[in-house]
Design brief:
With 553 residues, this protein is α/β, with parallel strands linked by helices. Helices cover 50% and strands 13% of the residues.
């Protein structure tokens, strides 16, 4: 816990003690002490609505309660300089800020671990992207990849044991279409007449795979029987498509701990096993020649078919087996990051979790809304280069990974995102990723100057006293809280907001003060050390988002 967090906890404790001293509530009746940081500095460093919270318990007017609390607060122990009561009973605290300089050695000592919380001994699995391996990743997948990876980084730093997983849909009709498409392209590459199947994949990648196969195998595959040839094309096509996916994702800064194959559920009888378990628990019934799941028992709007009349499974059946497998691996919580088109699928999946004997809260689903691309002020529906949907790869080439990672994470994932490509590549303060990266580059420039001046680690930090310095220190102290909140509320945009606010505080300080002054080496040394703490904090924050921290721009 850093000095800012300690001071906040200390203030909360002193407010509780004042409540007890003033006989406003007993310990058992005590509401949670909520402290907020007012946007307007005229309202102090912290504010609480404790007086309003106590009104019903103490049976007094909030304003009178606020006066009682003020009279009973140990200001010295809490580190308070001044207390104001505002409006109907808000209490504003103006803190003695000398403690803030203790943050600087704390940040420098913790280095890359600044902002990290103690282990929570809770295992969380996050499954994200999970696109069918039959083509290129599109914008929705790209946003899901950025949000999923950033969320995993946040959870990791908040003390959770996190596993990243990609579910490979390699057992459905799409893979069959990929297989027969590849077979057609192989035949065509050999100069033979072969029509593409009606639902075949028309992409250039399949054409290239066909040519590559001819180069590798010649016409040898024609000698195989139908079953052997189908199996070969299936394996080859899947492997090549996955290779492409993994390459694009890795370049985007996203790597997975587990790549889980849907086919493995069939091979290991896990689907039959989960069906037997549901039947044994009385959660299925037979009707019209089909096997149904009693999902309405658990809040779904209708019961769902698991095995159709022809004996084939619905999509839901392997999905239930997959979630059973996840939970059997000992995860306390499963977080699925799904596209908006899966919204209606959530109740039946939660019903299945509960029917298997788990708590429905063990499954969380975060929804990723659509991305709209804008260029030259106009909405782009298709890639100008290919005439098809814009892919992750194309956008990486066009605007760069840093802008994509930042922009995709800077809005709540369940809200639509308008991605302005012109803004994303602009070198201006209007571009938030440029603004934050420029703050880091600016600090690095100051540090280089400080080294040229011969400034060292020895510094009297009590010389840091100006208002802008204190604002900057307060913002540095908020990183652990920002990470904890982002983890608890699954809000990746809390981190991009924090990064932007920290950059604002740095630029504001830089514009107001002469950071390094050869006429005042003592103050310069203190500020040199402050800048080192700022650099470390910006680096740590950008690392969570998956954005680089350039030293020069």
């Amino acid at each position: 816990m850093n000095s800012v967090e300690q001071k906040k906890e200390q203030l909360k404790e002193e407010i509780k003690q004042a409540v007890i001293k003033a006989n406003l509530a007993s310990e058992s009746e005590m509401p949670e002490v909520i402290l907020e940081s007012p946007k307007d500095k005229a309202h102090g460093d912290y504010a609480t609505n404790m007086a309003m919270q106590l009104a019903r318990i103490a049976k007094k007017a909030p304003r009178a309660i606020a006066e009682d609390l003020k009279a009973n607060l140990d200001m010295t122990k809490a580190g308070i300089k001044q207390i104001d009561i505002a409006g109907p009973g808000f209490i504003n605290f103006f803190m003695d800020t000398a403690y803030l300089t203790e943050l600087i050695p704390t940040i420098l000592d913790k280095g890359n671990n600044y902002g990290r919380s103690a282990d929570k001994n809770e295992k969380i699995q996050v499954e994200f992207v999970s696109a069918n391996p039959t083509g290129s990743l599109h914008l929705g997948h790209a946003r899901g990849a950025a949000v999923g990876d950033t969320l995993c980084n946040v959870l990791d730093r908040a003390g959770y044991d996190v596993s990243r997983e990609y579910y490979i849909n390699d057992a459905g009709n799409q893979i069959h279409n990929l297989t027969v498409s590849l077979e057609a392209r192989y035949m065509q590459a050999l100069g033979k007449e072969k029509d593409m199947p009606e639902d075949g994949y028309q992409g250039q990648d399949i054409v290239q795979f066909g040519k590559d196969l001819v180069e590798k195998e010649g016409d040898r595959l024609l000698q195989l029987n139908d079953k052997e040839r189908y199996a070969y094309f299936r394996e080859y096509g899947l492997e090549r498509e996955l290779e492409k996916l993994k390459k694009d994702l890795k370049e985007f800064g996203v790597e997975f701990d587990v790549w889980f194959s849907e086919t493995s559920l069939y091979q290991s009888n896990k689907i039959d096993n989960v069906l037997a378990k549901l039947k044994e628990r009385g959660e299925t019934f037979e009707q019209d020649g089909a096997t149904w799941f009693r999902s309405t028992t658990y809040g779904d709007d209708k019961d769902r078919v698991l095995i159709k009349g022809d004996g084939s499974y619905t999509y839901l059946t392997p999905d239930i087996a997959y979630h059973q497998d996840k939970l059997s691996r000992g995860f306390d919580k499963l977080i699925n990051i799904w596209g908006a088109d899966h919204h209606g699928y959530i109740p039946r999946m939660k019903a299945a979790i509960e029917a298997l004997g788990y708590k429905r809260e063990q499954l969380e689903v975060e929804i990723i809304q659509m991305v709209n691309l804008f260029k030259d002020g106009e909405k782009m529906k298709m890639s100008k280069r290919t005439g098809k949907a814009v892919t992750l790869r194309e956008l990486m080439d066009e605007v760069g990974i840093d802008a994509m990672r930042y922009f995709f994470s800077m809005r709540s994932s369940d809200s639509h995102l308008d991605f302005d490509m012109d803004l994303a590549v602009s070198r201006s303060n209007e571009n938030p990723v440029y603004y934050v990266q420029y703050a880091h580059a600016r600090v690095c420039s100051i540090l280089r100057q400080g080294e040229e001046m011969g400034l060292t680690e020895d510094a009297d930090l009590s010389l840091i006293t100006s208002e802008k310095e204190m604002d900057l220190l307060k913002k540095l102290g908020e990183l652990p809280e920002a990470i904890a909140e982002a983890a608890e509320k699954r809000m990746t945009h809390r981190i991009t907001n924090y990064a932007f606010e920290l950059a604002q505080a740095l630029h504001s300080f830089y514009n107001a003060e002469r950071v390094l002054d050869s006429e005042d080496l003592a103050k310069s040394a203190a500020r040199f050390k402050l800048m080192k703490a700022v650099r470390q904090t910006i680096q740590n924050t950008l690392e969570i988002i998956g954005v680089t921290a350039p030293e020069k721009m």
